[in-house]
Amino acid sequence: MYSFLSTLRYCWISLPRVNIGHTMDVLDLDFSPRDILASASIDNRILLWDMNQKQPVMSPFRILHQHSSFVKGISFDPIGKYLVSCGTDNKVILWECNSWEVEITLTEPMKHTADKSMFRRMTWSPDGASLCLSSATKSSKPIGVVLRRGTWEATADLVGHDTQSTCCRFCPTVLTTVDAHK
After folding, report:
1. Can you list the pairs that 52-57 forms with residues at least 24 positions away whose Cβ atoms lie under 8 Å?
2. Mean pLDDT of 35-64
3. How far apart are CA 163 and CA 142, in angstroms?
């Protein structure tokens, strides 16, 4: 154990002090189906890392910086087409994963949402057809909201919360209907 700690300390001391990643705390991480790791931070940025790199020290291959404040949640869709991010700026940004350009910025679900939590995590349905956002607001009430892929319109409001929700999840198995005649 001592030799490991000594080696680690030596490496830390002997390495040049270069920031190769975030400059502040990371609040969320997610892996894409294509072995890309995204990290979201209170430095207002999303960094993208190629997990197939074999170097001992990794650098991000892309930095996304469209949020004007803390990025509190990120999620790749199961198909690998989109990365979605949500920040304190009350923007939900969908990034197209081939070009890493902004596909669309959604503000309506987060409009008038107060920043009362450290996280704003969202998730995709297992089939990628829906996106669920936490920390949304409707009629000045805190809700979760489910959006339909493509139109990005609300298909369900998850009501009943007394305060802002911080995360959401779909059931990991896709539910199917059973033919009543069998």
Report:
1. 57/20
2. 87
3. 6
